[in-house]
């Protein structure tokens, strides 16, 4: 059994993507728990990391496709997967630098679409599926989560208004720990699967695995560990945005937001809709903010996120396309793509050090930051 | 390209129902628990009844969460 170099490169790149996926999405489960003080920042990311790892092993439904039918998978080569992953990683890192919660799934889809268009032509991309599987859920799911969280927040405040506030606050904090854990677990079952699917299909393409094989144990373990490690490292910049910059979230709101996220994610994944955990969680946090007092939500931040969401797929597609074009010229091209990718990633890391956000500073909203425009 | 409007409708209804009911249950449980420690002025909910309400509401909430966990695992 020999594994060619490109297969090894794809596996390593897929695990790197998985890692960025993890630290990009820590915020989905834990941002409001950290903001309200229900969990200490480091404890929160530890719980989220462990539950992501557990989630990776729990799900029995293996991702059978890389792209959910978005592109003609018969025309996908390891080069295309590699280029698509590079596009997705680059976009994940850039949005992390900006502290914007964007969808890792959309980044992956975008990267693959761009790479496929260059390698196999526009005909290999199924644009109808793009509309029904990506665009439609992206529009509906955050709004739905937002509405659920808004009503739930209103109910929570109305019901407990005349009760002992100490008891209420403690109770919702415990509730938040449970609901945040559910989001983290659901995230592990969904997102770790994507990377397992990519690696497994790459191995099948390379003839290492038989066509109907499930992911080997080492693939499940490494994908689970990569996403768990990424989650534990914690995308503090995005946690800060979701926890503090959207609205001043209190425990009833945090609990309502996380419960709404869990309900929407589980209901839709049970009925076969793939959706972005990030967008659901973000929509829920806005809803929870609005449920208490409409004016307390920073709608300017919502505008920034909306732009990032719209741009995610095309931007990752452009990077994926360029990477596919360069990598398809041969081994030298592939090496160049890898080196440039590492260099850009290092540059983004360096840029992030100018204003680092850590577990200790995540709840301090920078006061020097100008108010978002178009509020 | 077919959009499964039926399933989409179910997702909307189930999400709304479960999300709101669960938060309401926990809220009511906390109202019940509050009656144990600091009964509101003029309230007719005694500590015993409050505890009972809290227990029933939390039990229902735990059942929903357990079903959610079952959905994740299965």
UniProtKB/TrEMBL annotation, chain A:
<protein>
    <recommendedName>
        <fullName>Phosphate transporter</fullName>
    </recommendedName>
</protein>
<keyword id="KW-0813">Transport</keyword>
<comment type="similarity">
    <text>Belongs to the inorganic phosphate transporter (PiT) (TC 2.A.20) family.</text>
</comment>
<keyword id="KW-0472">Membrane</keyword>
<keyword id="KW-0592">Phosphate transport</keyword>
<feature type="transmembrane region" description="Helical">
    <location>
        <begin position="217"/>
        <end position="239"/>
    </location>
</feature>
<feature type="transmembrane region" description="Helical">
    <location>
        <begin position="45"/>
        <end position="67"/>
    </location>
</feature>
<dbReference type="InterPro" id="IPR001204">
    <property type="entry name" value="Phos_transporter"/>
</dbReference>
<feature type="transmembrane region" description="Helical">
    <location>
        <begin position="134"/>
        <end position="157"/>
    </location>
</feature>
<feature type="transmembrane region" description="Helical">
    <location>
        <begin position="79"/>
        <end position="100"/>
    </location>
</feature>
<feature type="transmembrane region" description="Helical">
    <location>
        <begin position="332"/>
        <end position="351"/>
    </location>
</feature>
<keyword id="KW-1133">Transmembrane helix</keyword>
<dbReference type="Pfam" id="PF01384">
    <property type="entry name" value="PHO4"/>
</dbReference>
<feature type="transmembrane region" description="Helical">
    <location>
        <begin position="106"/>
        <end position="127"/>
    </location>
</feature>
<keyword id="KW-0812">Transmembrane</keyword>
<feature type="transmembrane region" description="Helical">
    <location>
        <begin position="306"/>
        <end position="326"/>
    </location>
</feature>
Automatic annotation (TrEMBL), chain B:
<keyword id="KW-0812">Transmembrane</keyword>
<keyword id="KW-0472">Membrane</keyword>
<keyword id="KW-1133">Transmembrane helix</keyword>
<feature type="transmembrane region" description="Helical">
    <location>
        <begin position="7"/>
        <end position="31"/>
    </location>
</feature>
<protein>
    <recommendedName>
        <fullName>DUF4190 domain-containing protein</fullName>
    </recommendedName>
</protein>
<feature type="transmembrane region" description="Helical">
    <location>
        <begin position="51"/>
        <end position="73"/>
    </location>
</feature>
